Structures are given as structure tokens and as C-alpha cells.
Hints:
The protein has 225 residues and is an alpha/beta fold. It is 36% helix and 17% strand.
Amino acid sequence: VVSKMAASLPATLGSRTLFLHGWRTTGDILKFQCRDFVGKDVNKKGSPNFINAPHVAKGKPTPEIEQFFEPPFYEWFDGLGDQSNPKYEGIEESLSYIRDYALKHGPFTHVVGFSQGGCMAALLAALCERDGEKAPLPDLKGAVICSGFAARDPEYAAVLQSVGKLQKIKMIHVVGTMDVMMINRSTELHHLLGGDFYEFMRGHEVPNKQTDPESVKKIIELLSS
Length: 225
């Protein structure tokens, strides 16, 4: 589905961007969610920019996803343990998968992530900031984090803490003021890595031209840079 707004954008907008979907969804679902800030050549069937995570979801998605979309669904990691000892099972495999995918289909200069994909996008930006050529996405210069959060698995939380405010990579955070799951965690991530922070009057969702035209404009500017 290509929106009227997307039809007016440069056809290749987002062609060097990797899009990472949310928890227990798919790349195609995120493609629909991001329809107002990708060009028509990118928002098409078989687009290499929207990938599925390498792990099939171990449980059901949210009721809204289950109602409107068909399985299978995917996840970047499975959160195990508790608040005092969280463990992200499968995240290392996901990082390796993204590295291999970028070698084949990249380079990717930007990354967009929603929810769990936002957590991954923030971690990828921090790894690029820290390790440069050794990072899974070594060419990153911009990241958009929609309703994202900072990794709490100690190994990856330490990466974010060690990097601190990003200097080389431009980052935008967008979160709904009614997103009770993520508003505080998105704020925490912003405090860790810095960047621009935008809120809009919605819940746990990707902004579009109706719900938040200002953030969409900022995202388009970043993906065009």
C-alpha cells in the first residue's frame, strides 16, 4: 500500500535504510506502518529493506496483530529472566543475521526500528559508534527509533552505557504520549544515547502523516541525508 504522501516522495527514499519490525510481527507489517516516509520503489513487494527477524515467534502476537495479519510472526529476541536478571535469548544470532544481510544487500546508511526493532536499531547504532568497521552495520549515519527502549540484558546494556551520547550518528526518537509500555523506556534510551526526541498524542505505534506530520517530516529529512 503506497500512500498519497509516499507517492509524492522521491521514489528511492529509504533505499539505503534497513527497517526492523516490532515484537512478533513481520517486515511487511512494518512496511505498512512506515508507508508515509518511504518512496514507492522501496515500499513494494519483495523490498530488501524490510526484513523478518531470524526467529519465529515463540508465542502469540498482540491481539491487534493477530486480528489483521496472518502468521508466521517473528522476533529479534526472546526476553527471559526477570527485571533483576534479564536475558535476551537469540539477540546475538539476530545481530549476526543483520551483519550477513547487510553484506549481501547493503550498505545501509540508516536504520529504522519500531518497538523491539527500535531496541535493535539503537544497539546497532551504538555498536557502529563504538566499533566502526567491526559493527554489523558499519556505514550507519542515521537512526530512527519509534517506541524503542534500551536493552536491559547486561551484556548489551553495557554497550549502550559505554558509548553514551552518539557523536557520529544522528538519532531521532519518536514515542506516543499514551504509549504506557514505552514512554518511560524511550525517554531512558534518549537520555543514554542522545539525539532528537519527539512525542505525539497516540499509543504504541509508528507515526504517520495524520497522527504526527511533524515527526514524519523529520524522519524524511533524516532518511534523505
